[in-house]
Amino acid sequence: MKKTILLLAIATLAIAGWTYLDHPADMDTPETAAVKKVMAIRYMTLKEGVSSEDFERYWLEEFLPVADQYYHVGSVMLMKGDRGKNTGGYVWYQEFKSEQARTWYYNSENPGSWQQVFEACAECQETMQRLSDFFLEDPYQDYTDYVEVK
User: Fold this and answer.
1) Which backbone phi and psi does 125 adopt, to 5 degrees?
2) Each residue's pLDDT tens digit, 10-24
């Protein structure tokens, strides 16, 4: 009986530890429900001669599956300008649940952060490297992060 209780306690702690590493503390709690979201906008201009179809295929078939597998602090999407100044242009949109989540994700000291995932994941490195095949500039060079106004 004592062994069973001990094993259950160890399993519970292991699951809790894994959950913390996968989703850091205070990201999905009621206390953070009122926290302001962060929207990160990365503007992207295709290189001369790169077709929209090739880029969109890469994004949907290569980039998004990797992002969905390793990105756990918000959402990632690609948007294409439909009307206005950036018609036909692309925006890489990332939404973070909070400023804390964004800071956590872009802090190389944290387990599961972008840099640690990137360094440990050959598939991530290859996929991200391919971005340079499509764009004039690194999307991280021309960006703005917007914090929700509440």
Assistant:
1) -60, -45
2) 434 444 444 444 555
Burial track 86-97 (b if 16+ CB lie within 10 A, e otherwise): eeeebbbebbbb
Distance between start and end Cα atoms, the chain: 52
For residues 65 and 40, what is the distance between their CA atoms, to the nearest angstrom?
19
Sign (positive or negative) of CA dihedral 46, 51, 53, 58: negative
76-132 tens-digit pLDDT: 899 999 999 989 999 989 898 888 888 877 776 766 677 777 677 777 778 778 888
Cβ neighbors of 94 (< 8 A, separation 6 or more) are: 39, 40, 42, 74, 75, 76
Contact assessment for residue 32 and residue 26, using Cβ atoms and an 8 Å cutoff: yes
* Residues 133, 44 contacting (CB under 8 angstroms): no
